[in-house]
Amino acid sequence: KYNLMSSENRLRADPYLYNWSRNLRFSSDVALVPDNMDQLRKIVTDPQYSCLKVIGTRHCFNFIADTYQNKPIGKKNAHISLEKFTDATVSREGPFPTIKMQPGLTFSKLIEVVDSHGLAIENLPSLPHLNVVGSLLTATHGSGHKFKILVDNIEEFEMMFANGQVKSFQKGKSPYFKHYLLTFGGIGIITSVTLRLEEGFNVSKSIFQ
Ligand SMILES: Cc1cc2nc3c(=O)[nH]c(=O)nc-3n(C[C@H](O)[C@H](O)[C@H](O)COP(=O)(O)OP(=O)(O)OC[C@H]3O[C@@H](n4cnc5c(N)ncnc54)[C@H](O)[C@@H]3O)c2cc1C
Q1: Where are the alpha helices (DSSP H) in 4-122?
Q2: Which of 43, 54, 77 is the best mutation target for the ligand 1 pocket, counting ligand atoms within 8 Å of the beta carbon and taking the most?
Q3: Is residue 1 part of a domain?
């Protein structure tokens, strides 16, 4: 059903239309990389597109990040990368510190920003170069059975819907808060998340050989 790549073709692949290891080819016609919210809204409301899907760092092992193959005649499917959306603001107001960040950040960048404020995120997945939002939406976990999955750190998020409108959701206030999150990008586009932070701490690592 899907186009599994030969190693020769992988080298020529448009990186946005393939998963990270380039063995899976998504079914979109085009990949788009908007610079800002206005451009993103124009893409989302453009009638030439039938199905749109945002990609993070394309590390899913399956096709959940894909658009549908079937589309009406004359329409296109497109993938959108938000890698240029990298603003992040740390706040110490409120009961605990937070970071409000756009969806282009990887965990490496997130750690760099929060560490510069003497802060930390509770837990992390194994790879630092994963996109934060893509990981949150797929229930990515860190290490240790006492910790919840990373999406539990979200206090607030903003989502752009198919009509281009952006709505804000707050933990404990907005109904169906979590129902909008663990949807693999199928309901709307996350345009910002606010994560709960902790005071910075060190972790010791031992390697036994
Ligand atoms: C080598 C490797 C190591 C891994 N290690 C771990 C680990 O330690 N712990 C763990 O739990 N998992 C781990 N994973 C799994 C990984 O965390 C998930 O596959 C995660 O989804 C990767 O994020 P991504 O942005 O690369 O995913 P993508 O495939 O790019 O996206 C994931 C989903 O999120 C959606 N999405 C992305 N951004 C947005 C947005 N802004 N708005 C709406 N939808 C969006 C996409 O449409 C897609 O459905 C690992 C995977 C690999 C390949």
Answers
A1: 7-10, 37-44, 107-115
A2: 54
A3: no
| pLDDT (tens digit per residue) in 162-176 | 999 999 999 999 999
Pocket mutation for ligand 1, best pick of 40, 130, 132, 161 (most atoms within 8 Å of C-beta): 130
209 falls within a domain: no
Domain of 39 in residue numbering reads as: 7-81
Residue 48 lies in a domain: yes
Residues 71, 129 within the same domain: no
Are 98 and 193 in contact by the 8 Å Cβ rule? The answer is no
Q: Is the same domain home to 100 and 179?
A: yes
For residue range 113-138, what is the model confidence (pLDDT) as tens digits?
Answer: 999 999 999 999 999 999 999 999 99
* 131 and 181 together in one domain: yes
**Strand ranges across the sheet with 88-91:** 88-91, 98-101, 189-196, 154-160, 166-170
Where does residue 20 rank: exposed (0-12), middle (13-18), buried (19+ CB within 10 A)?
middle
Pair (161, 177) in one structural domain: yes
Residue 60 CB less than 6 A away from ligand 1: yes
ipTM: 0.97
Number of domains in the chain: 2
Q: Is residue 205 part of a domain?
A: no
Pseudo-torsion of CA 128, 130, 135, 138, nearest 10°? -120
Q: What three-state secondary structure class fits 67? A: coil
